[in-house]
């Protein structure tokens, strides 16, 4: 019996599938397999990584019926519409949300969308500092597995850990997924600063103040502060704001440099900046960096104007 299924054959879904297939059969669903079955490689999203024989591929969601664990690794803004069409194929299992972001339409994170669409499922969140390419190459990686269920959480932690992929357990889904959502927005800001040539000191300041607003939002929404200090918050913020492998960072850097961003890349922080800005405004939470990123990506402000506005805010205690 196939125990693990993965929905979404993007870079992350494929990397997780390749890694988990070292321990047993895994089935990976894509809406369009293109040449993956023939090539036994995902040349479009994760080139250079052979797919092991224990990994099977399908375009038919009915083929996932034997899986007790389903990892959902779709882009955040696609998840709601996907679930509206396909939730019946997923209900009643352990569903692990792997998307990072906040849904623009509903203001919800991935775990809330899964729980709403699949009320009979046990929902968990897998998040933290990890580039798909690193996971796929078997490089050491540590992530957070958040699940409120005291029995399912430890079971998922054990079933989804591998010798190279070490999962730390949490019961704080809100904190785990808000860290992963906000860090992408701050990474765009960090990229803007570097692209505009404003220097490493400015980036360190943005990361630190970005962390402060991530924490403020998450605690307001019921998260535990220590979750944000962990892999899913600070850990992922550090990775994404400092690495050229991050699409969010590269997108911000292109904006800062006045050049064209890469075409076709999934840059979760763009829509999520708008979603979180609206959420924070409605709840009276001060999130100046996120608000500025939303304004710049929305074309309402230039990077230079945004930096001037951030520096001109009233002086305050740290
Ligand atoms: N890449 C990484 O290093 C990491 C990514 N993540 C998160 O994982 C999520 C997915 O990102 P990633 O894998 O990188 O994305 P990619 O850009 O690599 O791939 C996106 C995938 O989603 C598929 N897709 C898009 N819309 C739909 C839809 N409506 N129905 C079915 N499939 C769809 C695409 O299919 P098609 O090719 O047919 O368009 C494509 O396979 C994001 O939330 C990201 O933040 C988390 C950790 C690390
Ligand atoms: O989430 C990630 C690393 O943890 C991937 O970051 P990007 O989506 O910016 O590439």
TrEMBL record:
Keywords: Cytoplasm, Lipid biosynthesis, Lipid metabolism, NAD, NADP, Nucleotide-binding, Oxidoreductase, Phospholipid biosynthesis, Phospholipid metabolism. Residues 172-307 form the Glycerol-3-phosphate dehydrogenase NAD-dependent C-terminal domain. Its EC number is 1.1.1.94. NADPH binds at residues 12, 31, 100, 132, 247, 268. GO terms for molecular function: glycerol-3-phosphate dehydrogenase [NAD(P)+] activity. Gene3D superfamilies: N-(1-d-carboxylethyl)-l-norvaline Dehydrogenase, domain 2, NAD(P)-binding Rossmann-like Domain. Pathway: Membrane lipid metabolism; glycerophospholipid metabolism. The keyword DNA-binding does not apply. SUPFAM superfamilies: 6-phosphogluconate dehydrogenase C-terminal domain-like (SSF48179), NAD(P)-binding Rossmann-fold domains (SSF51735). Residues 4-150 form the Glycerol-3-phosphate dehydrogenase NAD-dependent N-terminal domain. The active site is at residue 183. It is found in: Cytoplasm. Catalyzes the reduction of the glycolytic intermediate dihydroxyacetone phosphate (DHAP) to sn-glycerol 3-phosphate (G3P), the key precursor for phospholipid synthesis. This is Glycerol-3-phosphate dehydrogenase [NAD(P)+]. It comes from Plastorhodobacter daqingensis. The gene is gpsA.
